[in-house]
Write a structure and sequence with these properties.
- The chain has 7 helices and 7 strands; from the N terminus they run αβαβαββαβααβαβ.
- The longest helix is centred in the first third of the chain and has 25 residues.
- The radius of gyration is 17 Å and the shape is globular.
- A 7-stranded mixed beta sheet has the order 3-2-1-4-5-7-6, sandwiched between helices.
- It has one domain: Rossmann fold.
């Protein structure tokens, strides 16, 4: 059975529109890398944790053609197709709690909407700290259990799913990240896509535009909690 994250081949206009959609959705992370990663315009080393269909990897290749890119996922159904489509990227099927990389290997690690899937996020954060270089940057996004949709919808909130086994509050994530040896550089929450009527066209279009421009906002009610953190302790 296919994973829900398996790449689906599209062509022509649909392919171009898909590329534009993901480039807009991830654009804020490009800005964060430029702002906070050391030597962001040179030969970065970047690891994506939880690569899924490879959409973020594809964006990274376009933004940083000289970067050394690696990506992992536990699901072979998504790793194998990604490796075929992006042979210049190092893909591995492996657990996030036991990263198969040497210490001090990466300038940037992304974990976008994946940490809530991990049985023990603290193990992942310890591994991320190990394989990041000193002052390397961790990009994190996860469902916000204190967001407006989570509070209003209760058990019907889309963030509650069988595979979201490590949902936590923003304060709990801050504590875990600090204890793992990181400091927060920027954080906030997104808009309100948890409400179905706001997550569909045409109402979704202005929200998607604002999201692409600003990334996240200084309020606690958004659908996702977003953070950029820097490795500080040895």
């Amino acid at each position: 059975m296919d994973s829900p994250y398996t790449y689906r081949e599209v062509h022509g206009l649909r392919s171009r529109l898909s590329d534009l959609k993901f480039a807009a959705a991830y654009w804020v992370w490009q800005r964060m890398i430029h702002r906070y990663a050391q030597d962001a315009r040179s030969n970065l080393s970047i690891l994506e944790v939880g690569c899924g269909a490879g959409n973020f990897v594809k964006c990274l290749k376009g933004w940083y053609p000289n970067a050394r890119l690696s990506a992992i996922d536990l699901d072979e159904a998504v790793v194998a197709p990604c490796a075929l489509r992006h042979p210049d990227v190092c893909f591995a099927r492996t657990s996030s709690e036991q990263l198969p990389f040497a210490s001090n290997s990466f300038d940037v690690i992304s974990a976008l909407q994946v940490i809530e899937h991990f049985p023990c996020p603290e193990d992942f954060l310890a591994e991320a700290h190990r394989v990041l270089r000193h002052e390397g940057v961790l990009l994190l996004a996860t469902p916000n259990t204190e967001g407006l949709a989570a509070r209003r919808l209760g058990e019907a909130w889309p963030g509650i799913r069988p595979d979201h086994i490590s949902l936590r509050t923003p304060n709990q994530w801050r504590s875990a990240i600090t204890e793992a040896g990181f400091e927060s550089l920027s954080e906030g929450t997104t808009l309100f896509a948890g409400f179905k009527w706001l997550g569909r066209p045409p109402l979704s279009l202005p929200f998607q535009l604002l999201q692409s421009i600003f990334g996240w906002f200084p309020w606690p009610w958004g659908e996702s909690f977003m953070m950029v953190a820097r490795r500080t302790s040895p």
